[in-house]
UniProtKB/TrEMBL annotation:
GO cellular component labels: outer membrane-bounded periplasmic space; plasma membrane
InterPro entries per the UniProt record, alphabetical: LipoPS_assembly_LptC-rel, LPS_export_LptC, LptC
KW Transmembrane helix (keyword) present: yes
Keyword vocabulary terms for this entry: Cell inner membrane, Cell membrane, Membrane, Transmembrane, Transmembrane helix
Tree of life domain: Bacteria
Record-given protein name: LPS export ABC transporter periplasmic protein LptC
GO molecular function: glycolipid transfer activity; lipopolysaccharide transmembrane transporter activity
């Protein structure tokens, strides 16, 4: 056997071995790491309206991306905008809540918002109300929200900061603990 035949057989064996390694790695790369599952569906640039048990709008969400976990049936959302309506007889306005990330429970009865959370509404007199925090848990069917971290509440003429937020979104009643309040004159 001459050296050219030997070199050709060696190169052929190397090519076959490389092809086999690449082929076997393809299956490993396609499967998720242990403990992680692929979403059963993904929505891009969407708007979704969730209804409560009575068939009324519980909330609307708009976002660039949503992924649903097939095991827990929860949803992870990128930069969501949640619109939470108040009842017509409450006198309060609809709440628009934005954040960097959102998580929705299987039944849609709990929403966890994290990162630069801003909630905007209007009070019974039509004045704007804004809440800012880093995390907010919203319970749309109960029309309430909570936060255990620092919250800043702003209305015309008032800036209030505190912790341990309890908010009744339907009646626009907000309770904060350990508050600091600053009043400012309103120019008319």
């Amino acid at each position: 056997m001459n050296w050219r035949t030997l070199a050709t057989l060696t190169l052929l064996a190397g090519a076959l071995l490389t092809g086999w390694v690449l082929w076997s790695q393809r299956d490993r790369d396609a499967t998720p790491a242990s403990g992680q599952t692929q979403p059963d569906y993904i929505l891009n640039d969407f708007e979704m309206i969730a209804l409560d048990k009575q068939g009324q709008e519980a909330f609307t969400v708009r976002a660039p991306r949503l992924e649903r976990d097939p095991d827990s049936k929860t949803m992870d959302i990128e930069t969501p905008l949640f619109i939470i309506p108040s009842s017509p007889d409450s006198g309060g306005g609809t709440w628009e809540v934005r954040s960097q990330t959102g998580w929705v429970s299987e039944r849609g009865d709990e929403i966890r918002l994290r990162g630069q959370v801003q909630a905007d509404s209007g009070d019974a007199d039509g004045r704007p109300v804004t809440m800012r925090t880093e995390q907010l848990d919203v319970f749309p069917q109960a029309k309430r929200a909570t936060s255990a971290v620092k919250v800043t509440l702003t209305q015309p003429g008032l800036i209030m900061t505190g912790h341990t937020l309890e908010a009744d979104l339907e009646r626009n009643r907000i309770t904060l603990q350990d508050t600091r309040t600053r009043y400012e004159s309103i120019r008319r």
